[in-house]
Design goal:
The chain is of the alpha/beta class. The protein is built from eleven helices and eight strands. Helix 5 (about 115-125) crosses helix 6 (about 130-140).
């Protein structure tokens, strides 16, 4: 089995619609794909309607969290999307995205970059607006060569010249909300230092004690030495280890199935979930 547990669609900051994403996942030879848009489940219905035969969809979301002023992301799988407390928190995070983006635009204008809200809104479309959309605007304006090049201290990285904070959930609270909604929680790219500061291993150990299920080890932003270190940490504190592409369509260079999750780990994730269940494709539009 080939299992990719971290992808994004146009429901957040990917460039493929949910329907396009699942069709591409099937064409890429995946058996299982998780749709984990940022702080939203809005793409799930379209993905399910288009799910090809032979591909199983894991529903999920990537939750925006912050601990000790360090931004971090938590992948939540197979939770009940209508559970009131988790739904309210996701909406709170999403509602803060527009004023945050407008604040970044103001800072960029002050730096002499002629980006506009209309440009960023066009790029975001129906998705939850975020830094990658602002970064794409900088690419359009030839300010930077790629989206990744915008995530530097000079521009949009945490603490960068045009950075603006947004509401982010305390990870221990996010973990409690996910568990109460019947979900499984995995810390996304925990050592992706090129994105900015990362939480110390002691914090990951504390989250494990609080019920964190796993950490994403095999990821494009982790080099081999980092993966080995994270595997060791996972063994010490009893966490599952996952692998995934963090696919965003053409917005990033990663490809579907670039990294995958062991089928036994996937099986354990599905056994732990009670809020929702993986959906096998029977043929969609």
């Amino acid at each position: 089995m080939r299992i990719d547990l971290h992808t994004h669609s146009t429901a957040s900051d990917g460039t493929d619609t949910p329907a396009e994403l699942v069709r591409k996942a099937a064409s890429a030879g995946l058996d299982v794909v998780a749709l984990t848009d940022h702080d939203t489940t809005r793409g799930h219905a379209e993905a399910l309607a288009a799910l090809p035969p032979g591909l199983t969809l894991v529903t999920g979301a990537e939750l925006s969290c912050r601990l000790d002023d360090i931004s971090m992301h938590m992948l939540a799988y197979l939770f009940d999307p209508e559970e009131p407390a988790l739904l309210a928190e996701r909406e709170l995070v999403r509602d803060d995205r527009v004023p945050r983006a407008k604040g970044m635009i103001t800072k960029l204008n002050e730096l002499g970059v002629p980006v506009t809200w209309e440009q960023v809104a066009r790029i975001a479309g129906d998705g939850s607006v975020g830094r990658p959309h602002v970064a794409s605007a900088l690419v359009e304006l030839d300010v930077v060569a790629s989206v990744s090049d915008a995530f530097t201290p000079e521009w949009l990285a945490d603490g960068g010249r045009a950075y603006m904070p947004k509401h982010e959930t305390d990870p221990f609270e996010a973990l409690r909300l996910v568990k109460n909604a019947g979900g499984v929680a995995v810390l996304a790219h925990p050592a992706a230092s090129k994105r900015g500061r990362t939480v110390p291993e002691s914090a990951i150990a504390s989250l494990a004690e609080a019920g964190l299920d796993g950490i994403e080890v095999d990821h494009m932003d982790h080099d081999p030495a980092t993966r080995a270190r994270l595997c060791g940490l996972a063994g010490e504190v009893g966490l599952l280890t996952t692998g995934s592409s963090d696919y965003h369509g053409s917005r990033k260079t990663c490809v579907l199935g670039e990294f995958t999750t062991d089928p036994e780990v996937y099986g354990e994730i599905t056994r732990r979930a009670t809020g929702a269940f993986p959906v096998p494709g029977t043929g969609g539009a």
